[in-house]
Specification:
Blueprint lengths: L1 H9 L2 E6 L2 E6 L1 H39 L2
Antiparallel strand pairs: 1-2
Amino acid sequence: MKHLDVLESAGFVTITREGRQRWNHLNPVPIEQICQRWLDQHRRRIKSAFNRLKNIAEQARDEEKGAP
């Protein structure tokens, strides 16, 4: 229960009570935000790597066209 209380205070879990029952529900919003933030870092690196690869390929193509 301590772990669920920590998750609830962090906003990852919402709790509803019905009489003696306690229903724990996952809150996808903060998890999605964390996931997007993490993926954005990797997307930027991958995009940068593909741009460098494109520039190298275009340079090689241009040099090949200029060669006799």
